[in-house]
């Protein structure tokens, strides 16, 4: 399970785990608009508020004025062929999952040494200026910059300043899990 503020590299780490360790990325649902390059059913299931409300979600949050939630159908895809799942959540969702699944789940909290790099990363990812502004000023983004007390001592904190170093830390974590 990967959590942390916008731009800290959650999606990058999830994609790395998918490619390098053949994990199944859990596709969650959102009412926000797709970003350039995002595909329905790959990055998210893009929903309307009406279609979102019809889903049987395990948990649901509001983040920067949009709804996000995870469904049983999304989670079961990985279980069918015995692969480990990787899911990307805000810290509220991460707390919910950690409390429900306990030791069955490995929690990674991503952060950076200097938060000012985050807006640049969102910009280079192709996010629109207005979306970046709204995101950086949202209460949820501000909250997710800090490891919540509920995850202290449970989450593996990785400072993602340098992608090469982050990859090595993920590899070490994976090796420790397999022991
Ligand atoms: N609790 C919860 N959070 C989710 C879910 N899907 C995505 N998120 C989180 O919602 C937040 C906003 O996601 P997104 O708009 O893709 O922005 P990003 O963090 O900049 O990639 C991120 O913290 C995601 O991890 C979900 O199903 N449940
Ligand atoms: N260590 C890093 N150094 C520079 N850019 C990075 C690093 N890690 C991720 N990125 C880039 O920053 C942007 C945001 O990363 P992303 O994985 O989408 O973050 P999140 O899912 O947490 O919002 C992407 O364009 C990604 O390629």
Automatic annotation (TrEMBL):
GO terms for molecular function: GMP kinase activity. GO terms for cellular component: cytosol. It holds the Pfam family Guanylate_kin. The keyword Membrane does not apply. The keyword Ligase does not apply. It catalyses: GMP + ATP = GDP + ADP. Residues 1-175 form the Guanylate kinase-like domain. It comes from the Bacteria. Keywords: Kinase, Transferase. Essential for recycling GMP and indirectly, cGMP. Belongs to the guanylate kinase family. This is Guanylate kinase. It comes from Limosilactobacillus secaliphilus.
């Amino acid at each position: 399970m990967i959590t942390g503020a916008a731009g800290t590299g959650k999606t990058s780490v999830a994609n790395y785990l998918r490619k390098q360790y053949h994990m199944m990325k859990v596709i969650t649902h959102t009412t926000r608009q797709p970003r350039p390059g995002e595909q329905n059913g790959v990055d998210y299931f893009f929903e309307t508020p009406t279609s979102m409300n019809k889903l049987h979600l395990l948990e649901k949050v509001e983040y920067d004025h949009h709804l996000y939630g995870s469904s049983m159908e999304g989670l079961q895809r990985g279980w069918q062929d015995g692969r480990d799942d990787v899911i990307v959540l805000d810290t509220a969702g991460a707390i919910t999952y950690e409390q429900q699944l306990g030791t069955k789940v490995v929690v990674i909290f991503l952060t950076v040494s200097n938060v000012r790099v985050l807006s640049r990363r969102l910009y280079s990812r192709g996010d629109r200026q207005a979306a970046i502004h709204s995101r950086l000023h949202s209460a949820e983004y501000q909250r997710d910059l800090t490891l919540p007390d509920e995850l202290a001592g449970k989450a593996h904190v990785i400072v993602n300043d340098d992608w090469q170093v982050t990859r090595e830390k993920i590899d070490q974590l994976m090796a420790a899990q397999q022991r």
